[in-house]
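thought: fold this chain, then report.
action: predict
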Amino acid sequence: MRKLVQLMHVSLDGFVGGPNGEMNFLHVDDEIFDYTGGLVNDCDLGLYGRVTFEMMENYWPTAVEKPNPTKHDIEHSRWYNNVSKIVLSKSMEGKHLDNVTILSSDIAHEISKLKQTDGKNIVVFGSPRASHYLSQHNLVDDYWLLINPVILGEGIPMFTGIKERIKLTLVESKAFSSGVVALHYQKKPDGVLHLK
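observation:
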């Protein structure tokens, strides 16, 4: 059975983007790429919201062809080009893209079915609106949060619209030289408490 894992950069005060979706606060470097590479290699299916998918499509398929690609460019481009992808989008409904499945309706049911299939894990990169939906429907099994040492004050929250309390266990934490801290949380098997 597959797990659905969320990989997300977040500010210290819980925002995943600025008020207009800006991501200029997040810090990435080789140390962080090497750490998250293990997570990504355990996944053979990428899940995205439309905006994040379009951003990924504009860069990763040809990242290795750019002048002086980094080690991360080479490794992630290879991974991206080889895995199947799912995009949660109403506006892309009916579009046909190679190795891409568009989910526009009955999404929670379709994701639940997908988690029951054989294969490696499913990774959600960023994709705040898609992530909100997945958390609201208690579909995320593991949260890999990269806490950036910045307070934004306002922006797109990591969580919103949660109707049930989801209990988690801290599996691992790691501090990087940049000041970013990685927290890996796993949902407990009995992890849902209904809120009154």
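thought: worth noting. The beta strands are 4-11, 15-17, 43-49, 84-88, 100-103, 121-125, 142-148, 156-157, 164-175, 181-194.
final: tokens above.
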